[in-house]
Amino acid sequence: MDIATIIGILLSTALVVASIVLGGSPIMFVNVPSALVVIGGTIGATLIRNPLAEVIGTVGVVGKAFSTRIPDSAGLINQITELAREARKNGMLALENTEVEYGFLKKAISLGVDGVELDRIRAILETEISFTSARHKQGQQILEGMGAAAPAFGMIGTLIGLVQMLAALEDPSSIGPAMAVALLTTLYGALLSNVICLPLADKLKLRSKEETLTMSICLEGVIGMVQGDNPNSIDQRLKAFIAPKLRVDADKTEQAPAEAATAQAPSGGNA
Question: Percentages helix, strand, coil for the chain, rounded to the nearest 5?
């Protein structure tokens, strides 16, 4: 679970609600027709722009904004390096029953174990990376479209309210309340756009980059295994994908088991 996304939504919502409560009665900020114009109009415009199946599929893509199921890059590189050592020592078939949690890496290793040609392995995995990125991009575009539509429908609702207000100018006492209700749709549209839709679209962009990077690491690692490259060479090649600080952390993680094994080894002195 990505706690940052949840904290961000809760914090921004709580601050808005707090400012409303501290400024007066919260009831004055509740208007069902205004909410219907903004929410209904945004959903309707989204359905006009995109096929129904893609809109429904966006729900699953949005879930990635709240999830951190992508494996840690440094840990993944260490895992691939260990698998490369095993493959070079005993052959790719030795990895057939190896437990691998990350689905893309598991698929890549399976292709290598099955003896698929290198060019074919690369083509299959690159195609999956490409289409995964395309699915994520579609979800981002839908959310960005909703983020653009919500303020527009907020303004439409405000114009509707202004027309209704101007039609009742014979009663000056109704102008103030009518204006407040008219402006609520603009508020609803701004909140829906800037608290929900656009931030989630940006988070999905980040998640897409992270997943594409992770999948590329797996691709290059397995290609190196199948080619029989030196595990240390594979390790250095994969670490080029990540930031220097993460490379240092990966080195520390990789050295820790070796140091522990050395510490547990019996000394060579005479009894």
Answer: 85, 0, 15
